[in-house]
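Notes from hallway chat w/ T.B., transcribed later so I don't forget. T.B. wanted the structure written out for a chain they're using in a teaching module, and asked if we could keep both sequence and structure tokens in one place. Agreed to drop them here.
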Amino acid sequence: MGLRPGRVHGHAAGLRHQQGRGRQGPRGGRPEARARGVLRSQRGQDAVTFKLRQGVKSEWGNELDADDVIWSFERMFTNPRSLQAGVLLPTANVDKQEPWTKIDQYTVRYNLTDPSAVSLSVLAYPILGIVDSDEAKKHATKDDPWAAEWLKTNSASFGAYKLKSLDPGRELRLEYNSNYWGPKPAFEEIVIKAVPDASSRAQLLISGDVDMISEPPIDQLKKIDESANAAVSRQPDSNRHNLSVNVKDPALGKPKVRQAISHAINREAIVNSIYQGYAQSALSPQASALLADQPKTGSYDPDRAKQLLAEAGHPNGFDMTVAFNTARPGPFAENLGRLIQSDLQKVGINVDLKAIPSAADFEAAVSKQEYQAYLYSERPSQPDPGFSLFLYLYSESALNKSGYNNPEFDRLVTTVLKQPSGPQRDQVVNQAIEFLVGEEPIISLVEVPDLVGVAENVKGYVALPTGGVKFDELKRS
């Protein structure tokens, strides 16, 4: 396709650039309001008061006010199982009975039940955007009081872009919101197309037909970097690819067995062969980008692995089935599984690899904890170790897929979530991490940076903790 000034084209595996690459949650969504810079705050321990910038208008010409904030969060809490109401806001200790209080037309108070270190950062998550309630209410009905049907195909945004057209599963077009309060972006139109085949995405970027691709294929990264038209952006991320296990399994429920598996895997060989050097070994309980100076785990030591297996009552090893799907962690999943299979065989663990063709079936079975073990990825949306500890390992978290349940660990995490940032919270975080060293409920393999293919003449891409692309900050050189 041809390009013209004032337009940026991006091809993605899914329609994920439109609002944000939602980490550990819905990946996509409409360009609802991300009213960056439209408020000032005054913070206390259990509440934050925001003063809204006056004169901020939506694409429909309605001014942002306190009623929009109140309505948008009431709408979020109508679905208790949503990512907003079920995970993000509870971990930030947001008062679900009255998340926001209107002080006056341009002043709102954000209410917390306890202090929180992530109460502000969760507000940057794209799916917590503020909707133009004046416009949305025009399309509400008795059966649909929150205008969900209308918002499926329309935007009600205070941000730099508005929805121009949407062809679900195929193409999304955004155009400049002329009512936007901030600086006019360099690109007036954003075109996002779904190109499921990773190699095709890479070729479109290399040939100069597109400006940006998400999830560039590992085996094409060097080719992209060596091309004349594009390069691979590598920025810090909390993305980890894991061998996840069901801790309710008789063998894998034993901490020493999990530690043995971790010591048996040659992560450096995986980094060099599967990831071609574009990753690093995961040798700590949490992502190194979230917290420095963590205790080490999983050093490659087959002899130690055999010793731990014997101590756990499995001197001759055992049989294990590892499921995988190419959507997550990626198209290289089978090759990754074969390396793990080879490493574990050397210590007596016989691995049967089970390919799951359907991504939907795979995710459903993971959620129901049906697999003994499986290859997976984790990418917490908040740059906070306490949030990550809760998200994947707290017994009542919706994203705890391993079935890990330890009352002492839960107690530590609960304490972390109810403390503001500071030395006391850091001390409890460190206690929780030390606790995991002897448990290793998730066997992390590698840490993968934020990898995005970007045209050489497109500047300004910055990886966000919540994922996605700030299109209004991109420029053509």
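Follow-up for T.B.: Residues 1-37 have pLDDT under 50 and may be disordered. Might be a good example for the class.
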